[in-house]
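Supplementary notes for students who missed Thursday's class. We covered one full example, reproduced here. Read the sequence, then the structure, then the short commentary at the end.
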Amino acid sequence: MSIYDGSKSLPKFSFSYAKWKFPLLAVIAVLVIAFLVVSFSSLFKPDPLMVSFEKPSFDLSERQSLLMKIVVVNILEEDAVDSLITVTPVDKDSISVFPEEVSIPVLGKGETRKYDFNVRPLFEGIPSGNYEIEIEFVSGGETFTKRASIYIKND
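Structure (token representation):
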């Protein structure tokens, strides 16, 4: 008997798409849903550094300083030790911020802290306009930065 004998045939192998269609679609749907859940969960993490002002601008004829509020959140998976908030005016010759630094000895996982800073002009004749302040939050070896802008009106 030879392999070229016409009366012998090899076993047939066939793939039926109809048989595997629904389980394959279910696996793809589960993978897509898992991907979407992971993608959206990263979008809803809290912002580790939030900055707001008592008012969006201030008139020097009404007041001499403005309150800036900074909220920090530990978004890391562990407690943060020796965190630091540094606030620096971009135009150091026109405005000052007090305090310039705040040290946080321990910030627990998911914990939030609020701090107040005073923004004031350095001299009476400061020109009206926008002044920027750079805020840096170092926590757990990661650095988060923001820039905030305040409008000072001086008539």
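Commentary. The chain has one helix and nine strands. The first strand starts at residue 49 and ends at 53. If anything here is unclear, bring it to office hours.
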